[in-house]
Design goal:
- The structure is a homodimer.
- Chain A is of the alpha/beta class.
- Chain A folds into two domains: 12-23 and 284-386, Aspartate Aminotransferase, domain 1 (Alpha-Beta Complex), CATH 3.90.1150; 43-265, Aspartate Aminotransferase, domain 2, CATH 3.40.640.10.
- Chain A contains 15 helices and twelve strands.
- Chain A has helices at 12-15, 30-38, 63-73, 85-96, 111-120, 137-151, 173-182, 202-205, 214-217, 231-237, 267-282, 286-301, 327-333, 339-347, 370-386; strands spanning 17-18, 78-82, 102-106, 123-127, 158-161, 187-190, 209-213, 225-229, 307-308, 318-322, 350-351, 360-364.
- Chain A has a five-stranded mixed β-sheet with strand order 2-8-7-6-5, with helices on both faces.
- In chain A, helix 2 runs antiparallel to helix 11, helix 4 (85-96) runs parallel beside helix 5 (111-120) and helix 6 runs parallel beside helix 7 (173-182).
- The radius of gyration of chain A is 23 Å and the shape is globular.
- The interface between A and B is large, with 102 and 102 residues.
Amino acid sequence: MRCGAGIDARMVDELAINIDPIQAGGRLTADAMKAVIAYGDGYSVCDNCRKPNRLDYITKPPIAQFHKDLASWLNMDTARVIPGARRGFQAVAHTYVKPGNPVLLTSLSHYTEFLAIEEAGGVACEIPADGHLIVTADATAAKIEEVKKDFGRAPALAFIDHVDYQYGNVHDVQAIAKVAHQYDIPVLCNGAYTVGIMPVDGKNLGADFVVGSGHKSMAAPAPSGVLAATAEQAKDVFRTTAITGDVTGRKFGIKEPEMMGCTLMGVTLVGMMASFPHVKERVKHFDRELANTRIVVDALLSIQGTNVLSEYPRKHTLTRIDTTASFDTVAQSHKKRGFFFSGALSEKGVFGIIPGATRVWKFNTYGISKVQAQYLAQVFADIARENGLKTGS
Amino acid sequence: MRCGAGIDARMVDELAINIDPIQAGGRLTADAMKAVIAYGDGYSVCDNCRKPNRLDYITKPPIAQFHKDLASWLNMDTARVIPGARRGFQAVAHTYVKPGNPVLLTSLSHYTEFLAIEEAGGVACEIPADGHLIVTADATAAKIEEVKKDFGRAPALAFIDHVDYQYGNVHDVQAIAKVAHQYDIPVLCNGAYTVGIMPVDGKNLGADFVVGSGHKSMAAPAPSGVLAATAEQAKDVFRTTAITGDVTGRKFGIKEPEMMGCTLMGVTLVGMMASFPHVKERVKHFDRELANTRIVVDALLSIQGTNVLSEYPRKHTLTRIDTTASFDTVAQSHKKRGFFFSGALSEKGVFGIIPGATRVWKFNTYGISKVQAQYLAQVFADIARENGLKTGS
């Protein structure tokens, strides 16, 4: 089935249990799907844009209220929608980082945080995760002191991943932020894997900024996201334009340069908005999601030779697993090599593991039901047994 | 009908002739609508992302081919999709403009070009449009000389609107670029109102960059757009990342900092792709669109006191009209004031004129049929007659 010349209609989530590490939290809700159909046209949210002509002032659809609700839900003072979490990193880095400035992030940070630093001309300084792959307040303090010695100044900004993309481990943003603030370093909490997945209270975390991803974790179309700030930092990052035309004398009102004016003019924003009530509700039930993850992780651990590389017991649904001493031993002599594993998963209706991967791989059970989790557990155990691996059960 | 809590389903283009100045070129094609339904989920295009893990390398859906086709269609060497034309301005400004550098744009330039300059720390230098509201090569030469005198250097970059957003006038990018290049100034052609609307040949225009807007003119969801470059300039703006992690030694492959890595991970991109064959075809028939515009503009001009502020005869479907001496005289004594006009249009099934506006306003007939154009012409003439204005017919 095609949805355009050469473009096959995508039916992954209709036909399979999708445990792709980055896709699990971005599946649309039914309301978002309706919104996508109703607001597909470009500039569809601008029908009722009136002075002062800025996206977050539009009341029909209720975009203004959504912005207030987003900020309040994250327990921050101000929020803007953005085309992806990365554009939030970019705006904040551009505001605080001057060329040559050291900027803190972590040894588990996402590449887009590095790019934001690079674009601002900053120098990336990684706080090393500890032996348990957790970033700690102590390591943060040590790194800041090291940076001060090397650069003669404290870092200009800190990017701290609430949950990192590599292991899905939960880091103690609150304790880290407390240390950073002792050096007057503003802290951006990267909630790409938490905002929309589990409860996030920005002020309780001590974050100056909270960034979330619509397409990763808020059941919204791409590219979308949120940048929330405290009132104090909002003045910096959401400052309004000061430029004028030298001939016309034109000024540009309350447009915000770091946002490049309006950001999400249609389907992406309305998709986020339509999913929002469901997202607000689902974060309250993260315990159910964790219970499902544990069913699957425990099944994998019952396969002899399998290790979980993420912290254990799991505190997040994104998990990194090492099957070098289990499924990869099968791949060594299987005629399909590593593809036996993804092939078997596919035959059993499971999607989202990189084809060919049998050593270290990630999966995310977010959004599956308990029955699906039990089925997944069975699938992994069955593939193991069918290929002569020993299982604990 | 609602598509989410508090969100009314949008039915503007289903129920009315929509002549909104910014929305006309962004209405989805039927194929784009199918694509939006199939690819609504966040990260939906990443199912088959493999090494080197960059959006423009994905072959299923055929994103890699789309990038090549886009570049070739614009007669440029390289193209990237971006979250809106403004993000193309931002990337190019950030690449070429150092703090304090003068940057050329025009007295008719869009605010997002100003914001891009502001964000890069540049100084906006407007080339004044002439008495006919056209930006000329002569005015460009004069402005460059003025800038050289004032700043001791030539402008670092020039933003030239192919068709401006204020009047929909066509400017001679080719002649302007020739002048700019004599001073080694790279030229960005802002095709937000032309790419996807009328034929655009970047090399023939002499542009170093061509920027287009998906949601404004390529029948795509928002935010989307294209940044195309010559091979020479692509090396600058699409340079790959050079940052490394100081602890982990991590590098980030071929990700491009100005793009912040991948850009449109789902519905926005596939919407653009699905519309693309139709968009390529429709630009060949711009003459039909102009014929429709002329029917409507001539009807407006037949109403005594009405002037067209855009160049005439019209060369684009976006038109600025002055009805201060016609419809606004009615508004002066009408019990609904200026709202009589938008109210009457609405009753007759026409959408897109700012409610209350009776002096200077804009409309865009792009995409309507000849029959609809004739109907629109009749509607304007009828509203005039019904309110006691003289018409030439």
